[in-house]
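anyone seen this seq b4? input:
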Amino acid sequence: MTIKIMHPEDLKILRICVDCRQRFIFHSDWVDHQLQTGHNSMKKYDLLSGEMIISLDNRIRETV
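predicted toks r here
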């Protein structure tokens, strides 16, 4: 039996794949999805506030 430590964002951040709209609550599930599908674009939402989390990468893309 292998015990895995949860990622700090697990159960706090909702990730939504931009390509297929699949939702992920666990970081490891998102990583597996990326490896299986090649999808790399996602939107992140804070589960407590419901607000979208804008990363530095997203801000740079939006201004270009």
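Confidence is low (pLDDT under 50) at residues 58-64. Residues 1-49 form one domain. kinda curious what u guys think
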